[in-house]
Amino acid sequence: MSSTEELLKHELELHWIKGTGKSGGGCINEGTAYDTDKGLIFVKYNSKPEAFQMFEGEYESLAALKTADQVKVPSPIKVLRNPKGGAMLVMDYIDMQGLSLHAAKLGEQMARLHLFNKGLKEKAVSKQQSLHYKVDYSCYVTHFGFPVTTCCGYLPQDNNWMDNWLDFFARKIDQHVRWAEEKYNDRDVGQEWSSLLPKLPKLFLDLDIVPALLHGDLWGGNAAETDEDPVIFDPASFYGHSEYDLAISKMFGGFGQTYFNSYHNLIPKQQGFNDRQDLYMMFHYFNHWNHFDGGYKISTIRLMHDLNRKLSS
Questions:
Q1: How far is CA 120 from CA 144, 146, 212, in A?
Q2: In terms of Cα–Cα distance, which of 54, 288, 29 is closest to 150?
Q3: Exposed, middle or buried by CB within 10 Å (0-12, 13-18, 19+), for 128?
Q4: pLDDT digits over 35-70, tens only?
Q5: Which residues are catalytic?
Q6: Closest Cα to residue 177, out of 42, 290, 308, 53?
Q7: Which strand ranges, in their side-by-side order, compose the sheet holding 30-36?
Q8: What was the pLDDT predicted at 125?
Q9: pLDDT in tens, 253-296
Q10: Is 278 helix (H, G, I), strand (E, B) or coil?
Q11: Strands (DSSP E) along 47-106, which ranges?
Q12: pLDDT attached to residue 132
């Protein structure tokens, strides 16, 4: 038995554990499936020093999505420090394949997820039933943010609570602008952002944005299906504007028009939707730029410039 299996057996209080030979992973993490006396589990690994924080955020994201119970996600089990360096996230194993037959069902379920907190608001009858500072995902959340840091990729998101969505989102971009300036010694990006920022309120006129529980990184690689249901995974959750979750879904494919049609049957587009989608895509271009170097710089700056020009007219 390997040292990893010994650690898992001890920490999860298992009688036995055996690798299934099934594995997975991407550009950030690797993962392995195990059979145990408590059922199948999937273990994600990352050797970076910041992996424990990253996996803690994913654990809480899965816990929040599980509590909402609107779309299928793996059940989180435990976050462990790896004696060899980094950390591990243990969750239950779901046998799944690429999203295909259940795309429309996923669109409806994601809309219901985004409406979940609004429904809690409507049911709340006292301040004791609404909170924004504890980990209790069955209560109405009044602010924008999340109880813990979550990571989009391996970069941490500042999820400290704020009562204004645009201020919260602008802080996310500020963070990436600072990273781009420091990492690439790029000053053009800060100037473009400083010019764009004061114009952004034009995109949110007459909108009443109720905090929605978001997946946070729902591109095609983070959605799949079983024979019966769609599944989402690898979340970087927080409470934000529901439209935010749609932007990255359009960037890299994997979601057909049936997904979006089904979603908008429950949450129709509001005026300015397309421009706000460009704004939210801008975050993800920044995120890819700061993960994978300068290949995404051109797309990021072009999007900022186009929004700046459009909002100046």
A1: 15, 16, 11
A2: 54
A3: exposed
A4: 999 999 999 999 999 999 999 999 999 999 999 999
A5: 217
A6: 290
A7: 17-25, 30-36, 39-46, 87-92, 76-81
A8: 55
A9: 789 999 999 999 999 999 999 999 999 999 999 999 999 886 89
A10: helix
A11: 76-81, 87-92, 97-98
A12: 47
pTM, two decimals, is: 0.94
Q: Which residue matches tokens 């993962």?
A: 31
Residue-wise pLDDT for 124-140, tens only, equals: 754 554 444 455 788 89
Contact 73, 38 (CB under 8 A): no
For the record, the structure tokens of 195 come out as 């010019």
Confirm if 199 and 309 have CB atoms less than 8 A apart: no
Tell me how long the chain is.
Answer: 313
Those residues whose C-beta lies under 8 Å from the C-beta of residue 69, and which sit 6 or more positions away, are none
Of the chain, the end-to-end C-alpha distance in Å amounts to 66
Average pLDDT, the chain: 92
Contact 49, 151 (CB under 8 A): no
CA 61, 149, 42 angle in degrees (round to 5)? 40
Separation CA 266–CA 115 (nearest Å): 9
Q: Look up residue 196 and give its amino acid.
A: L
